[in-house]
Design a protein that fits this description.
The chain has about 80 residues and is mostly helical. The protein contains four helices and no strands. It has helices spanning about 5-15, 25-55, 60-65, 70-80. Keywords: Membrane, Transmembrane, Transmembrane helix.
């Protein structure tokens, strides 16, 4: 017998005892929520640690500097609309 078949036999038994006005998530719901909260906290702590290690200062690209013409004539050629 499969587990799903066993559970379908138990569902009608639980429905007889279930009071629809007193349904709560219970201890299992709290534990799942607490586990999710701890997981999110751990991920945020890890992200903050990794973001602290990031160096936001870029080194100039040597290929781009060599491709740009130097001097004022190069500036006029780079922006013809101004």
């Amino acid at each position: 017998m499969y587990a799903t078949q066993a559970l379908t036999h138990l569902v009608p038994l639980a429905a007889e005892e279930l009071d629809k006005n007193k349904v709560t998530p219970g201890v299992l719901g709290f534990l799942v929520f607490a586990a999710l909260a701890v997981g999110v906290w751990a991920l945020m702590k890890s992200m903050n640690r990794h973001m602290g290690r990031v160096n936001f200062e870029e080194a100039p690209d040597p290929d781009a500097a060599a491709a740009e013409p130097a001097g004022p004539a190069g500036d006029k050629a780079a922006s013809p609309g101004k």
